[in-house]
Each structure stands twice: as C-alpha cells, then as structure tokens.
Amino acid sequence: IGASLLGLFLPFSIIYLIYILDTKVHSKEDLQKSVPEIPILAEIPKIFGDDKNKLFEDPTDRSPLAESFRILASNVNFSVPKQDQQQAHVIYCTSTVKGEGKTFVSTNLSMALASLGKKVLLVGCDLRNPQIHSYLGVDKKLKGLSNYLHDDTVNWKGLILNKFKKLSSHDIMISGNMPPNPVLLLNNGRFESLLDE
C-alpha cells in the first residue's frame, strides 16, 4: 500500500514542482495574467529552421508568418499616436539578450509596413552584434550607421540600400563597421539628428 501511494505521490509531486517553477511564457494568456495593462499586438508563429529564410519579400505572400506580421503591422499602425503627415514614426524593436529575434521581427515588421504602402527605413542599430547584413546577403563591412555616427562628412542618404525589388518603399541602413565603444557613438548627437531627418 505504501509503495502504491508513493508511486502515485512521487510523479504528481514532480509534475507539480515543474509546473510551479516554470517561469517561461508559453502563450499570450501567460502574459495577460502577469501584465494585464500591456496590450498584446500580435502573436508570431514559431517556425522551425533558419530565420534568415523566413523573410516575406513578396507583398502578396499569404503564408501564416506573413499574415501574422501583417496583423502586427496593422496593430502597430493603429497604436502609434496620430501626428502631422509630414512627420515619420520611429518604432524601436529591442529585447533583453541576444538571440531573441530582434532582427527577425524588425525586418519582417518593416516589410509588412512597406507592403501596406508605408515608406520604411529599417536602421540596424545593433552595433555590438549586427545581423541585418546576413538577412540581406550583403557584406558585413559595408558602410552603415556606425560610419555615419563616427564621421561628420558622411551623408546618411548615401548609406541606404534597397534590397527588395517588390517593396520599393522599403529602405535599409545596416549597422556598418563595429566600433570599439558603441554607447559613446550613439550618444554623440548625430543619431538624434538622423532620426529627426
């Protein structure tokens, strides 16, 4: 009887402990319970494999991934405050650690916004571990944001790339050469003037 009770109690105890100690976010309901005041704009499906092959360059793409990013783009567009038509919005994608999908989300979100008819400039601001160049298939040593921030003579308009033929309103500025101290470079005042322009 004791062995039977132990056989029942032990597995349930282990399952209960795993459930109690699990702090990962598994669904949007987990987020809604933890932070109900923060809106959830979209859910992006997990598609296994290489993220670099999951860019929807075709504005007519109807895959689940493309549709989820269109939903995100529409909700972001609805969420940003209305302002003068001459002013552009700045949308900032970030995360706590590397490898969480900043480049994947920002690249696809920018293409989804461009497919909705918006003019988009995707700026690679990750000066420590830049990845946008690998998504685009361009050389990492091409001039980009860091070169503009470092050199006053560089015009940012000369650093713009347009890699997607079907999305003519989508432009990109990659991160550029890796600087020794990115924080100083981002705080020298030229980044604010770039965003203002």
How would you concisely characterize the structure shown here?
The chain is mainly α and 197 residues long. The chain has eight helices and two strands.
Can you walk me through this structure?
The protein has 197 residues and is mostly helical. It is built from eight helices and two strands. The chain has helices spanning 2-21, 28-34, 64-79, 102-115, 132-136, 145-150, 182-186, 190-196; strands at 120-123, 170-173. Strands 1-2 form a two-stranded parallel sheet. α3 (64-79) packs across α4 (102-115). The protein is elongated, with a radius of gyration of 22 Å. The termini are far apart. The model has no long low-confidence stretch (mean pLDDT 85).
Count of DSSP-assigned helices: 8
Write the H/E string, N to C: HHHHEHHEHH
Arithmetic mean of pLDDT: 85
- Tell me about the largest β-sheet: 2 strands, parallel
| Strand tally | 2
Proportion of beta-strand residues:
under 5%
Could you tell me how far the N terminus lies from the C terminus, measured between alpha carbons in angstroms?
A: 77 Å
Output the keywords:
4% strand, two-stranded parallel sheet, 197 residues, mainly alpha
Write the SSE topology:
Elements: H1 2-21, H2 28-34, H3 64-79, H4 102-115, E1 120-123, H5 132-136, H6 145-150, E2 170-173, H7 182-186, H8 190-196
Parallel strand pairs: 1-2
Helix pairs in contact: 3-4
